[in-house]
Amino acid sequence: MTSINSTALQGGALATTVTGNTSSGSDNSTASQINLILQQITKLTGQLKDIASSGGSAEEKQKQQELIQAQITMLQAQIAQLQHKQAEDAQQKQEQNQIKAEGVNYPSESNQIDILI
User: Which residues lie in Low complexity bias regions (predicted)?
Assistant: First the structure.
């Protein structure tokens, strides 16, 4: 199960943690992790827009914007890692399927039988 937790810190900043299963071959869990991270990015983007209309000094708003932008960048990096993992898993699965097919209806060089009539 994948979860994203946000904790409010002093000054209105957020600390975000993403936890989840890392079992190989689970495309659905990787896809769900990506979707959850995208939802978190959407929330953070909304918070970025809200900062402009919130009260506080310009310096404080700037700090909050920088923190949220850093979190968005971190989440985007996590998405890139998950997409890379997804591509590797798909490639590995494809290679395994090719190995399984060899020798059944498609004999390999060492398992080929020549029949002479």
Answer: 15-29, 93-102
103-106: long-range pairs with CB below 8 Å, 24+: none
Helix (H) or strand (E) run with residue 18 in it = strand 14-19
Which domain does 7 fall in, by range? 3-12+24-90
Name residues whose C-beta falls within 8 Å of residue 96's C-beta, 6 or more positions apart in sequence. none
98 in a domain, yes or no? no
For the chain, the C-alpha Rg in angstroms (whole number) is 24
Torsion of CA 44, 50, 55, 60, to 10 degrees: 40
- Report yes or no on 100 lying in a domain: no
What is the rounded average pLDDT of the residues 78-99? 89
Chain centre to alpha carbon of residue 6 = 17
- Report the number of distinct structural domains present in the chain: 1
- Determine the residue type at 54: S
More confident residue, 14 or 58: 58
Q: What average pLDDT score do residues 88-117 get?
A: 73
Q: Are 22 and 31 in contact (CB under 8 A)?
A: no
Tell me if 58 is assigned to some domain.
yes
